[in-house]
Amino acid sequence: MSTAVELHGVSKWYGNVVAVNDVTMTLGGGVTGLLGPNGAGKTTVLHMMAGFLAPSRGQVLVGGEPAWRNPNVYKGLGLVSEREAVHGFLTGREFIVASAKLHRLPDPEAAARRALELVEMTDAQDRRLDTYSKGMRQRTRVAAALVHEPQVLVLDEPFNGMDPRQRLQMLDLLHRLGTQGHTVLFSSHILEEVEQVSGTVQVIVAGRLAASGDYRTIRRLMTNRPHVFTIHSNDDRRLAVALIGEQSVTGVEIQPGGLTVQAGDYGTFTRRLPKIATGSGIRVQRVIPTDESLESVFSYLVAS
Amino acid sequence: MSVEQSVIHDIGYQRYTGVRLGRGYAARSLYTHGVRTAFGFGRSAKAKIFPWLMVGIIGLVATIVTAIRAQTGVPVMSYVDFPEKMTPLLILFCAAAAPELVSRDLRTGVLPLYFSRPLRRADYALAKLLALVTSAWLAVAGAQLLMLLGGVFSVHGFRAVWDEIGDFLPGLAYSGVHAVVFSAVALMVASLAGRRAVAAAVIVAVFFVTLPVTGVLYAVGGDTGRELANLASPSTLVSGVGDWLFDPVKSGVGDFGPLYGAVALALVLGCVALLLARYRRVAR
Amino acid sequence: MTLIATEALTKRYGSTVTALSELTVAVEPGIVGLVGANGAGKSTLIKILLGLLPPTAGRASVLGLDPTTHPERVRAKVGYMPEHDCLPPDLAAAEFVTHMARISGLPRTAARERASEALRHVGLYEERYRQIGGYSTGMKQRVKLAQALVHDPDLLLLDEPTNGLDPAGRDAMLTLVQRIGTEFGISVIVCSHLLGEVERICDSLIAIDAGKLLRAAQVSAMTTARDVLAIEVSEGTEELAASLSALGLQVQRDGHLLLVPLAGDDTYDQILGAVALLDLPLHRLDQRHHRVAELFTAKEAVSVG
Predict the structure, then answer these.
(1) In this complex, do C151 and B16 lie within 8 Å of one another by their Cβ atoms?
(2) What is the interface size between B and C, counted as CB pairs within 8 Å?
(3) Which of A64, A200, B227, C34 has the fewest CB atoms found within 10 Å of its own CB?
(4) What is the pTM of this model?
C-alpha cells in the first residue's frame, strides 16, 4: 500500500475566495516543511489532507485513498492543528488515552504509554493539562496525534509560542520521526529551523504551489538569479581583478568585509574559485553563499 | 531652485522635547474619550444610532411638553418629574454606553497598554465612571435645558423667569442623581463582562427584573411596605430619593426619606468600590 | 547610565511560587535580548520594571529611577509592546495611536503630530486611516510598536515582536527594531524565543531560567569564532574528506559540511589545494562560531558569567 500523501490538481474555493489553486504535490518519507506567507493557503491544504475539508476540485489521497470523510485516513494520518483546544481538567495521560479510545485501539493504555515515551512526557503525564507549559501542551497534542501510530503526521505551526529548549526538543522529535520512516509535514515561518530539520520544502504562495523539493536544488534552478557570495582573502583586490576576468562572474563589489561576487554560472564559478586562488597564491579565508539560505530562496519565490 | 538653495530635509526620528503632562491630563483625556465613545463619536455610524435615538426620544418628549405648555400655559411635566419619567430611556442609554466604555477594553486586551502608561488603575476606572455619569446626565439635561428655554419664553417678567430657573435647577440636580446611581450600577456590571451584548443584557436585567419585587412589596406590605417598596430596585430607588428631596408632601416615602438617601449613597459607593477592586485585579 | 539594574530581585507569589529569585544584573544601553523558557520569570520581570508589581525583596532601577517608588515616572519614559492581541478593532490606527499619546501625557497637537510620525516610522501609510480590525498581523504588530514609540520613550520593551509574522514580516520587523536601537537612539529590550533573531540584532543578552539568572553577556562574546573551519562542496564530499585526511587533517562530517580544526594559515591553503586538485565546486568555507543556542543545549544550568 502506498504510504504517501498525494494532491492532484487540488483547488479549494469559498465563493470568490480561492484559498488553494491547482496544487499537485507528493509527499514521501521524511520531514517536509510547508512554507508560505500568511494567508497563502497552508492551513487549508493541511486540513484537506486530514480529511476535514473536501477539495472543490482535484483529489487528495492519503495512502492511495481519498481523504475526505474517510475513516481509514484517520487511521493513517495524525493532525496537530494550530488552535489549542484541550480540556484543561484532564491529565496528559487521560487526554492521550481518550484519543486512543477514539481511534478504537485494542489497548489504549499501552498505546498512550508508548506515545508519551516518544514525546518524552512520561514524567508529567499525571499532571493536569492546564498546569502544562505551552511546549508541554504541544508535545502532548503531538502524542495524541501519534497514539494510533499513523504513517503520516501533519502539524500546523507546531512551534508557536515555544521557548528555545522546547523548540529544540520538538525539532529533534520531528527529525527522529522522519528518520524512522514517517512522513512528517509541518508548516512554519521560522525558516532557520526548517533548514535544520530538513531541506525538503513545499512552498505555497497565494494558493499556488511555487516550488517543491530540496531548497538548495531549488536555488540552483533559479538560473535567472546570479548566486551571490561573500569572499574574503588575504588580498581581496587582487582576487577581485582575477575574478572579474572570469566568464562565470557577472559582478564583483569591493567592501570592507570582503568581496561580494555575483556568479551567473554557479557550477563553473565554484570550481574555478579554488583554482584561481591556488594559482595566484591568494589565500581565500572565507567563502559564504549569501543568498542560498532557505530564507533567501523563500523570498525569491514569494517575490517572483 | 538654484544650487545654493537645494537641501535635503532631515525627516528622521525626532526626539520629543515638549511638555509632558501628568496623571491628571491622562485621566482627563480618557474621560473626554469616554464621553465621545458614549455618544458614538470617533467610530462608525452604527455606533451612533442607539445613543442618539435615546437622546432623540428624550428630546422629543421635552419638546412636546414644552409645546403643550406654550399652547395651554400648563406645564404638563415639571423639571423634577422629567428625569423620573425618562428613567427607562436613561437605563437603556446606560446599558448601551457602559459596555462600550469598559467591556470593549476588556475584550480587546488593551488594558496593558493603558496600565503601562502614567495612569493608575483607579484613575482608569474613575475616568470611565465620570464619563458615563456625564454622558447620562447630558442626555437628560439637554432636554431639560430645552424645556427651560421654552418655559422662559412662555412666562413674563423677571420674577417669573427667576422662579422658572428656580424650578429648573433642582430638576437638573435630580437628573444628576439619576445619572450617578444608574452609571455606578451599569458600569460595575459592565466591568465584569467582556461581551457587550451580555453586559447590556445583564444591566437591563438588574434594573428591570427587580421591578416586580417593588410591585409585590407595594401590594402586600401595607403602608410601610408601600413606602419601602421602591428600595427594591435601582430604577425606583432614585424616585424615592427624589420624593425625599423634592416632594414637599413626601407622599411616596413618608418618614423613610433619609433611608432612601442612605441606601442610594451606599449603592453608589458599593458599586464604585467593586469597580475599583475589579480593576485592581484584572490583568488584560 | 545603566539602562536597567537589579539587585537580588525576588518575587514570590504566596509561599509556593517563586517567579524571580535573587536576580542581580546590570544592563548597558543598546539592544538587549531577554530570553528564557515560558514561565521562567520574564513577564514578572517586565511587570516589576514597569512598576506594575512590587518585588518581594531586592531592588530594581530603570533609567536611574526606582519603579517601586516612582512607577509613573518610569512608565512615562518606557514604551511597552505586549505579546498578545491588544488593539481595538473598530478604531483607525491614527486615532488609536493619537489617543495613546495623550494618555502618555502629550498635549493634543503634539499627540497628533507624533502619532503621525510614529506611524510613518513603522511603515504605515494610507492604511492608518482604516480600522485596525481589517489589518494583517504584520500591520497590527506595527501599530503596537507605534503606540510604544509615540511618546518618545528612552526604553522600549518589546515582547515577542515577530510573533505570528511570516518570514518577510519578521525580516521587516527586525530591521525596524535594529534601526530604532541604532539610529533613533532608543534602547530596546527584546523578549524572544528565536535565538537567531537575538544573534542578529541584539548587542547583549540576558537569559533567565526558573527565575534565576542563567547568563548575562554581550552577544559578540557568545558568538566568538571557534578554531574550526567548515567546508561545503556541492559534490564529492567523501573524496574531499579522504583527501584532507590523507593530508593529516582531522575531518568530521556534519551533514553537508566537513569540519576541520583550524591549526593556522596553512590549513586554508591545504583545503583550497585539495579542492582545486579534485576539481570540486567550493560552496562554503567559513570559521564556525559559537551560537547563543548553546546556552540551552546543555542540560544543567550554566554558571553565571
Answers:
(1) yes
(2) 97
(3) A64
(4) 0.86
